[in-house]
Predict the 3D structure of the following.
Amino acid sequence: MFIYEFKVYPKASQIVAIEEAIRTAQFVRNKVLRFWMDNRGVGKTEMFRYNTLLRKEFKFVDDLNSHACQTAVERVLRAVNRFYDNCKKQIPGKKGYPKFKKHSRSVEYKVSGWKLSDSRKHIAFIDKKGIGNLKLIGSRDLNFYQINQIKRVRILRRADGYYVQFSVQLDPRDTVEPIIPSQKAVGVDLGIKYFFADSLGNIEPNPQFYRRGEQQLNRLNRKKSKKFRRGKPQSKNYHRARRRGAIKHLKVSRQREEFAKRVALRLIKSNDLVAYEDLNVKGMVKNRRLSKSISDAGWSTFRRWLEYFGYKYGKVTIAVAPHNTSQNCSNCGEKVQKSLSTRTHVCPHCNYVEDRDINAAINILQKGLSTQGHWESYKLGEFDPLALVGAILLS
Ligand SMILES: [Zn+2]
């Protein structure tokens, strides 16, 4: 599944209609969730039946395209199933009990309720919400695809305006030329001091915007909280500060995406196997004290691109458990305890000396090549909001 995104500039009346459609989808979602909470044990069929009832009862629900209502129900189903799964797997900590949505940002259509113009540069939403015609602004050309390859269309509000996204059914492998094997394998250690260090001794420094962006975000956040008024409606100045913060956030996340994508592509193209730490392990605290929200987010973005390109180019990506990768000696395997501030690994057993992170990267590669890692593959098909920011950059 590929996501192509276009900017749109709706008129004031169209914005009202879009917001109305978003609110309706949220209303259906919350109503169906309430229905599930009040009637434990109801399944898919009952939920969809309840949706039909809602359409009969409320005119504004009936005005929204029926498939768009269905996707709202599917959202609830996904959340419920994820919750049940977490309970079944007995994952420690929170199980993710489904929550009501208060600030939805999008509405999602399937294959009906919209129509592309002949040139495919305009889209018209043709349900009774009255959104009407929108000009699609972007570099992608939808003429490359069959209409039946477009499985979902979504209208999305971001801090800097409205977007229309198309989810196109296409396997990334279909568009790729076979590449010559590099005959190399690499382990990477994601760090605080650098973005990562690899087992060949290379270091990828943190990009400038990481620190700068973090500082700016903190400053904007402070400004916002100064203007916050407890228990009162918020002032114009508060909302202005909030919008500034949101736009900056969007900018930083786009830069992060671009950076992660570039680095991941390079790593995948120059190696046949990439091993990295499985930082998603629940309950694991990795240098909590030092970790920065922005690098955490950067790592998961990086990993997603790594697995995506691995899939696309037929390379192997392996996630390994991060335990002891920085403590053990990569030369003799003995455990060499060191604090976070010790930057160099010096082994008293075999006299091996190496940069702390490079030593860790070698351990990660060794784990990856042994049976301790688990093979990760990019998962096709989900219309995942996380995957969306990146998809703009695929063009
Ligand atoms: Zn040693």
Remarks:
- The longest helix spans residues 236-270.
